[in-house]
Specification:
CATH architecture: Alpha-Beta Complex
Radius of gyration: 14 Å
Order of helices and strands: HEEEEEHEEEEE
Number of helices: 2
Helix content: 10-25%
Number of strands: 10
Strand content: 35-45%
Shape: globular
Distance between the termini: 31 Å
CATH topology: tt1808, chain A
Number of domains: 1
Length: 151
């Protein structure tokens, strides 16, 4: 049984996925709600992920070694998991980039983390509001306010 998602969450996930797909270079696949098999008992499902694994129509999970970016769009019910549990588990699994997208006054705020390999923990890169511009895991430019704007 899934927790009902709010309109804000669905809009941000859909538009962010589309934006990332349009900017991903050849060889990088962006997927929605695909599990990452950390081990036999842990298969978290990020809202969005970018992977270097080629598309396979029957795939049900990705290896953390192939995941370049995991993105979680926070809901009230998922806040603790996204901000603490998954932050730790994705870092321990070696996923190089992790984004947490939160709602602030109806607009998305993106907390960007990058894996520090010597400590096997994430280091904060920045907190982005309105606009996001990054070079890693691939060049990305986002108008964050447009992710929730009514069209």
């Amino acid at each position: 049984m899934m927790t009902p998602q709010r309109s804000w969450h669905a809009r941000v996930v859909n538009r962010l996925t589309s934006s990332l797909e349009s900017q991903a270079p050849s060889g990088i696949v962006v997927e929605l709600e695909m599990t990452v098999r950390l081990d036999e008992r842990n298969r978290p499902e990020p809202d969005i992920l970018a992977t270097s694994a080629p598309f396979e129509s029957g795939r049900t999970w990705h290896s953390p070694a192939d995941v370049l970016l995991a993105v979680e769009v926070v809901s009230p019910e998922s806040a603790h998991r996204d901000q603490h549990v998954k932050l730790r588990k994705y870092a321990e699994a070696g996923i190089p980039h992790y984004w947490i997208v939160e709602e602030h006054e109806t607009k998305p705020v993106v907390r960007v983390y990058e894996l520090d390999k010597p400590t096997n923990a994430y280091s904060p890169v920045g907190i982005f509001r309105s606009d996001l511009k990054l070079e890693f895991p691939f060049p990305i430019v986002l108008d964050l306010d447009n992710l929730v704007r009514a069209k």
